[in-house]
Amino acid sequence: MHYTIKHLRYTEAAARHGSITAAAEALAVSPSSIAAAIDGIEAQLGQPVFVRQPSRGVAATRYGRQFLDELRALLAAQSRFDRRIGEIDRGVDGTVRIACFTPMAPIMLPTILTEVRNRHPNLVTHVFEGSVTEIITAVEDGSADLAIGYSDLMPTNGPFIPLFTAYPHAALPRAHPLASGDYVTLEQLAAEPLVVLDHEHSRKYLMGLFAARDLRPNVVYSARTTDTMRSLIAAGLAYGVFNIRPIVKQNYGTGDLVRLPLAGDHDSPRAGIFHRDDARLGSVASAVVAACREQAAAGAFEPAIVRP
């Protein structure tokens, strides 16, 4: 069988974004180019990689998930090859300053920074966590080179580099009657006690999900951190709505929780990297962006995603 790296990357991007249109936008190509790449690969394989879902994008088949695992391993190996060839006799060193939206930091930064350190051991990384306003201000005033956040929270006039789509999902106490299903709806959850994250933009996003369905949630707790949210949920006191989950299984002092996708179409932001429109990325910041992109292509962030 013969595959081109370009067509393989197009196929992986469609899987990562859950949509041919979103993949085309992220790669700055036409949707027809993505669709043609997928069609060509499926024709060679003799079976479908994706199920097309009208108005909902694409979802990998059982065979497709196995194919994508191998595909991501291949792309990661190819990226490592390109990187090592490019870095022969040319080490990347210096300092990069990264601002990260606080709720995302404990989930994304360990994966990103471990990869950056492994690739560029001489690179010094300074990390700053903050609210949406704080991380945007840090990038705009030059005190941070990059910001990690959600697409719907970042300024529309700056470059945004998407890494994956962050679908909203529900976290419920393990003993909750709804926790045994394959999915849950906002209509089922609206009357249940809800814990919200005490960040202005996070609360606004959450309320917007319910408002889009003419629902009003029953907010009974407000937490300053996602760790507190998860602990309250595990203890059976409330449920919560998140866009990403910890990559490593969490343990709680009391109880446990389960995560279920939200049925239906919902506003699903993309997690990614923002930088100033008028600032050219230097070699150090570009190396970090490249590491993040290659991690996304290799599926490093997949454990953080609850797909619908």
UniProtKB/TrEMBL annotation:
GO MF annotations, alphabetized: DNA binding; DNA-binding transcription factor activity
> Does the record's keyword annotation contain Repeat?
no
Q: Which SUPFAM superfamilies match?
A: Periplasmic binding protein-like II, Winged helix' DNA-binding domain
Entry keywords, A to Z: DNA-binding, Transcription, Transcription regulation
Q: Which Pfam family would be a valid example here?
A: HTH_1
Boundaries of each HTH lysR-type domain copy? 1-61
* Record has Acetylation as a keyword: no
- Which cellular component appears as one GO term in the record? protein-DNA complex
Q: Which family is this sequence assigned to?
A: Belongs to the LysR transcriptional regulatory family.
- What name is this protein filed under? LysR family transcriptional regulator
Native organism:
Paracoccus suum
Q: What is the lineage of its organism?
A: Bacteria, Pseudomonadati, Pseudomonadota, Alphaproteobacteria, Rhodobacterales
